[in-house]
């Protein structure tokens, strides 16, 4: 999503001269972005969608949006561009990092060179730049424009917005500082409204109650019956409360904000599934439903979890991904339709040449005890980081498994990689 129309590269000279046309152009584009933020309750998603446009408008290479954690002692990344990690990371509210310092002091900083200790000391004698991220990624941070998100009435800290590296290799100029303040004020209002607004939708079945297909006591009975019988609550709703899969699907669609896809008997197995095993699909709860020239339609029972893991995007980096949700029962029916009993008669040759995706899933289970022991030992010895690699000579693909269970497919050999980092304060982050 891009709202920004580019203007000449010498625009900073224009900005510094307070050119009226440049100001109007800049704030017109900024208004389009802030209008989009005001029109949604999903701040993290809209900021992720707008991140490229914001970077273009402010001529920066990267941005990070943090929110304050529930303990009020750290800020957690919610949107970040340029990093390969998909896990949120936390920074203590302290002078151990620039973003943490901004959160602590509620002051905006505009830094020319984050590696210049003399410049950092102008803001605070104890201020540090967290160099570990640059060292691990190979990216070189230089300029930073970082400011707090403050609740207008209570003056409470809600988050921090950070812009990294001016593409013109200079300090962020005054006009961008002005626009940066306007953007932060907009985000602060959006954060505050989200905190104050009552959450109408609490579960993925709330639309059933709203549409009178189910009562609140009935939902409670169904949940208890599902726990007692060890089955999914959707099966109880269908079999014992006579709720149709279509009604459940409509409720799921409302909850996850994506289309509902029912089971269809005449559906053909996509060619893109040829390298997938049934066990992998059942374990990860997503399946390729349709394959087009440059896009894929993914059916899943939990779109949020699959999108957050970034597995699909890692496996198909150039494809446009469209997600749809379905019920647990219809997902199982679709698996039966596409795979049948194909995996039950796997020959030794087929087993030896299993696809790397399936091999990673099997390796994870087989090595779980060893992984757990290694992790416990590393924690006990306070190792700053560690990894566990599983390589297979036969396979030609590398799959990097992150701590959250996501798998990144690269090239070469199969690698199951667990990696943990610790900040100086003892708070941990996952790479």
SSE layout and pairing:
Elements: H1 11-16, H2 20-38, H3 43-57, E1 60-68, E2 74-80, E3 90-92, H4 98-105, E4 109-111, H5 117-123, H6 132-137, E5 144-150, E6 157-166, H7 174-196, H8 206-210, H9 216-229, H10 233-239, H11 245-256, H12 278-284, E7 286-291, E8 295-300, H13 303-309, H14 311-315, E9 320-325, H15 328-339, H16 348-352, H17 356-366, H18 368-380, E10 399-401, E11 407-409, E12 420-422, E13 428-430
Parallel strand pairs: 8-9
Antiparallel strand pairs: 1-2, 1-6, 2-3, 4-5, 5-6, 7-8, 10-11, 12-13
Helix pairs in contact: 2-3, 2-7, 9-10
Characteristic terms for this protein:
alpha+beta; Beta-Lactamase; GMP Synthetase, Chain A, domain 3; 4 domains; 6-stranded antiparallel beta sheet; 18 helices; elongated; disordered C terminus
Polypeptide structure, described:
With 431 residues, the chain is α+β, with helices and mostly antiparallel strands. The chain folds into 4 domains: 11-196, 2-Layer Sandwich (Beta-Lactamase); 209-251, no CATH class; 258-345, GMP Synthetase, Chain A, domain 3; 353-430, no CATH class. Helix content is 42%, strand content 16%. The protein has 18 helices and 13 strands. It has a 6-stranded antiparallel beta sheet with strand order 3-2-1-6-5-4, sandwiched between helices. A hairpin with a 5-residue loop joins strand 12 and strand 13. The radius of gyration is 25 Å and the shape is elongated. Mean pLDDT is 78; it is low at 5-17, 343-367 and 390-431.
């Amino acid at each position: 999503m891009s709202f920004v129309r580019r203007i000449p590269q010498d625009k900073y000279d224009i900005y510094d001269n307070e050119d009226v046309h440049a100001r109007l152009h800049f704030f017109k584009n900024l208004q389009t972005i802030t209008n989009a933020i005001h029109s949604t309750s999903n701040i993290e998603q809209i900021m992720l969608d707008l991140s490229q446009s914001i970077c273009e408008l402010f001529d920066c290479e990267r941005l990070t949006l943090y929110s304050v954690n529930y303990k009020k002692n750290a800020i957690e990344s919610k949107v970040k561009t340029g990093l390969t990690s998909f896990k949120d990371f936390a920074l203590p509210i302290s002078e151990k990092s620039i973003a943490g310092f901004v959160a602590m002091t509620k002051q905006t900083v505009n830094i020319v060179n984050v590696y210049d200790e003399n410049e950092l000391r102008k803001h605070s004698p104890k201020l540090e730049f967290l160099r570990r991220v640059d060292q691990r990624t190979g990216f070189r941070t230089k300029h930073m424009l970082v400011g707090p998100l403050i609740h207008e009435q209570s003056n409470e800290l809600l988050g921090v917005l950070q812009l990294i590296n001016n593409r013109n290799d200079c300090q962020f100029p005054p006009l961008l500082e002005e626009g940066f303040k306007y953007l932060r004020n907009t985000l602060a209002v959006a954060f505050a409204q989200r905190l104050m607004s009552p959450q109408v939708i609490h579960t993925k079945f709330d639309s059933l109650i709203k549409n009178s297909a189910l009562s609140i006591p009935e939902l409670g009975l169904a949940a208890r019956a599902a726990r007692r019988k060890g089955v999914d609550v959707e099966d109880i709703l269908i079999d014992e409360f006579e709720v149709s899969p279509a009604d459940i699907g409509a409720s799921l669609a409302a909850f996850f904000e994506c289309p509902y896809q029912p089971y269809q008997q005449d559906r053909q197995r996509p060619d893109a599934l040829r390298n997938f095993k049934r066990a992998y699909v059942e374990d990860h709860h997503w399946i390729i439903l349709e394959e087009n020239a440059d896009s894929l339609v993914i059916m899943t029972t939990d779109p949020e979890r699959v999108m957050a893991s970034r597995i699909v995007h890692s496996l198909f980096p150039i494809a446009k991904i469209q997600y749809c949700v379905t019920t647990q029962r219809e997902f199982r029916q679709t698996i039966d339709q596409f795979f049948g009993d194909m995996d039950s008669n796997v020959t030794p040759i087929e087993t030896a040449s299993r696809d790397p995706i399936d091999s990673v899933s099997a390796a994870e289970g087989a090595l779980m005890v060893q992984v757990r022991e290694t992790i416990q030992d590393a924690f006990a010895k306070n190792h700053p980081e560690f990894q566990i690699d599983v390589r297979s000579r036969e396979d030609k693909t590398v799959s990097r498994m992150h701590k959250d269970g996501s798998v990144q497919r690269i090239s070469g050999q199969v690698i199951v990689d667990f990696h943990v980092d610790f900040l100086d304060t003892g708070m941990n982050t996952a790479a």
